[in-house]
Structure formats: C-alpha cells, structure tokens
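Narrative summary of target 7.
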Amino acid sequence: MKKKYVVSLSKEERIGLERIIKNGENKAYLITHAHILLKADINGPNLSDQEIADMFHCHQLTVSNVRMRYSQRGLEGALKRKTRESPPITPILDGEKEARLIALSCQQPPEGYSRWTCQLLSDKLVELKIVDSISRKTVERALKKRS
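Modeled conformation, tokenized:
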C-alpha cells in the first residue's frame, strides 16, 4: 500500500529525535512520537504503519496522524500537541466585569455590614446584572488575583 504522507528526516532531525529518546526525561507521548518518526523515515527502516503500531503498542491511526502532522507542520508539529486557541469554558469575569467587581469592593458595604464579603459581592454582581450567576469562590479568586 502506498503511503499518503512520507517522512523524510534530515540528519539533524534524526539526531534531535534520538536525543529525545535517549534523554528519557520527556513526556511519554513525545518519546513515542519520536520513535514513530524514526521508524517511518524513508531513509531509515521505512516500516509500515501497522508494523510501527505493533512495535510501540499504539494504534495505527496514531502512526498515520504523526506522519500527517510531520508532512503538514514539520518536526515540531509532529512531536508536540496542538495548543488550544481558547479555553474550554469561557471565563465568567472578563476584564471589564472584573474591573466593576473591584470598583464595587472598594465602595461602602451595604447597611448593616462592616465590610464586603465574597457572598455579598457575588449577590450584588447578579443584582446589578453584571453577570447572570457567579459563585462566591469565583469572586474570591478574582479578588485574590488583584491583592
């Protein structure tokens, strides 16, 4: 079967991958990806995806994905995982809302209280419709960041 993505390592890339493997202080997936690239190299062993998968106890798709990332994004793209562009959960307090929280905490506390508590601040943020809902712990973390 003809390989869709061909791995052709230069001498420097091969030395760098061998260094990653021999060092042993890298993450397991990084070492596995380095092994896969070395075994998939057309200038080296040039093994099939199934042979490499059996050799390193991983799935055949892992091998083909590493090959694909090498041909599309180069050596660094094949070794490292893609970083997220945005967090999985959007933060409740962005810069503007956090600034309003800090301004609110600097104001006089409600009547009957000597100081603002995190629960009072979270209730006030919801009351003023700055946020839909917020826990006192989120308020606590935001204020702790700023003090």
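The first helix runs from residue 11 to 23.
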